[in-house]
Amino acid sequence: MRPARLSALAATAVAAALTAVTGCTEKGGDGDGVVQVTATDDKCEVSTKEFPAGHVELAIENKGSKVTEVYILFPDDRVVTERENIGPGTKQRVTAEVKPGDYQIACKPGMKGDGIRQSVKATGKGATKRDPRLDKAVAAYRQYAQAQADETLPLAEAFAKAVKDGDVEAAKKAYAPSRIGWERTEPVAESFGDIDPKVDLREDGLEGDQEWTGWHRLEKSLWKDKKITGEDKKLADRLITDLKDWQNRVGKAEITPTSMANGAKELLDEVATGKVTGEEERYSHTDLVDFKANVEGAEKSYELLKPVAQENDAALTTELDKQFAALDALLDKYRADMDSYEFTSYDKVGAADRKELSDAVNALAEPLSKLAAAVVTK
Known about the structure:
By secondary structure, this protein is an alpha/beta fold. The protein is built from ten helices and eight strands.
C-alpha cells in the first residue's frame, strides 16, 4: 500500500516516523516547463499558475521543519504525479506529463489529509508529443497491469472462499498469493482512483470514521484475532467486488511514461521507509512477498522505458541495471525456490538484515528518481 493518498475519500496510510510540513513561496522559474514549489510549514504557493501543457518539471524545495510531499492532482483528486518524503532543507525535482486543463498542486503537511492546494492550469491545445516507443511502453504496461488484475481475481476468490467457509488456515495460505498481482501494479496504483484505500489500507491509515476494508482488515482477523466473524465474511465479498472494479478500471486508467517512472520510484521509497519496518504485513509477516512483487512491478516499468532512457542517459540505465540486479539477488536469499513466492517470514529477519534490505532499496531508488526526466529528454 502506498503510504499516503490525497483523495476526497481521505484514504491515507501514514508511516509512523514521518510527519510533513509544507508551503510554497513565489519564485521565478529557472526554465521553460519548470514550476518552483517551496515548502514551508503553512503555505503552498507556486511560481506560476499557468504553464504549457506537455512535460512540466516541479523544482521543489522544503523550507519547512518536517518531511513533506508535493502532488499534481486532477480536478477529481486523481494523482498525476507525486514526490513524497522530501526532508527539511532538501530539494527534489519531479517530471510529469500533463494534458491541457485544470489541475491542483498540493503540498501535504503531516503526510495526511488533503494538503494545502494551489489551482493551476496547463495551457495549449494539442496532446503531448513523445517518442512513439513510449506510447508502446505505456500500452505494454497497461497490458501487464491488466494481466495482473485478471490473474489476481481467481486467487482472491480462493482467499475469499476460505474466509467465507470459516477456514482460518486455508485463508492464511491463500492470503499472500492473492496480493501479488496488486503489489506488482502499485507503481501506477494512483491511476486506479480510490481502489487502493478500499483494498490495501492499513489500520493506522484510517481517518475519522473511515470504514476499514480490504486485505489487511482480514489479515488482522486471521493472524491476530485467530477467528473469522460474520463481518469478515461480508468483507471478503466486498474485497472481490472492489477487485473486480479495479480489473475494469485498468483499461481506462491515466498512465503515462512519467507516471510509470515516478510511480516506480515512489513505491520503492515506500518499501524503504515503511514496508521494510514490517508495518505492511504486521500480522502475517508476509512482507517479503510484497517486496518481491513491488520490485517486479517497478522493474517492469523500467524495462519498458529503458530503450528511450538508455539513448538519453546511458550511465543512468547502467546504474539502474546494476541496482535492480543487486536487489533481486538480495531478495532471493530469503527463498529456497527461485520459482516460488514462499519467502522467509519477516519476523525472522533481524535488524541488520532489514537495514541491508533498506539500503539496497535506497541505492536503487536514488537513480530511479531520474528515470522520468531521462525518458523526456530531447
